[in-house]
C-alpha cells in the first residue's frame, strides 16, 4: 500500500525541502499551494521524480473548504492513505497596528489559522478510523510572543498553536501524532534573502536555518515511536537569542 504525505503550503524553500525529505523516505508526496503557483508545483514534482521519488502537484487554496475536502478525498481514493499531513502556510506580514486593515487581519487569520483548522479536521477524519497518522503544524516565533508590528500574524499563529495543542490532546489517545514546530529564526528562503542584506554572512556562520535541516526534523517527528512523542519542537540557529 502506498504511503502518502500531503504538504499544505508547499513553497519553493521550506515546503519543498519537507516534500523532498518525505519523498526520500519512500512516501508519495502530494504538493499543495494556491493554484496560481501550479507551474512551480509541477516543476518541484518533476524534480522529485527525477530523484527517484513519487510526487503529485495538487494546487488548491487551503482556505476553500469544499476544495480542501475534495483534495483529501482525491488523494485517499486515487493515490493512497495519508500517513503524514504537514500544514506549512506562513502568512507572515508586518504592519503598524493603525495601518492594519480588517482585510489584512482577516486574510492572515484565514491563511494561518482557518486553513490549519480545515487541514487538521480533514486529516483527522481520515486518520482516526485507521488509528494512525502524523499531523505537523509549522509555527513561528510569533506563536509564542507578539512583537511590534505583528498583531495579525501573532494572533493567527497563537491560535494555530492552541489548535495544535487541542488536537494533540484529543487525537493522541487515538494514535494520531500531532506536533507543532516553532521556527524561531530566519530560514534561508527567497523571502528572507530579499529582506536581509547579511544572509551570506549568516549562512557562512551557520546563523540561519537551513530548509533541509528543518525538513529532517519533520521526518524525525513522523518516525518517533509513540513511547516518546514530541508535541512541540523549537528550531533555531545556535546564534539566535531566545
CATH architecture: 3-Layer(aba) Sandwich
Beta percentage is 15-25%
**Strand/helix succession:** EHEHEHEHEHEHHHE
Return the CATH class.
Alpha Beta
- How many β-strand stretches? 7
Tell me the radius of gyration: 17 Å
Notable features of this structure?
Rossmann fold; 242 residues; alpha/beta
What does the model show?
This protein is α/β, with parallel strands linked by helices and 242 residues long. It has a single domain (4-235), classed as NAD(P)-binding Rossmann-like Domain (Rossmann fold). 47% of the residues lie in helices and 17% in strands. The protein has a seven-stranded parallel sheet with strand order 3-2-1-4-5-6-7, sandwiched between helices. Strand 5 (133-140), helix 5 and strand 6 (176-183) form a beta-alpha-beta unit. 43% of the residues are buried.
Topology:
Layout: E1 4-8, H1 14-24, E2 28-32, H2 38-50, E3 54-57, H3 65-78, E4 82-87, H4 102-130, E5 133-140, H5 151-171, E6 176-183, H6 190-195, H7 199-204, H8 211-223, E7 232-235
Parallel strand pairs: 1-2, 1-4, 2-3, 4-5, 5-6, 6-7
In short:
By secondary structure, the chain is of the alpha/beta class. It has eight helices and seven strands.
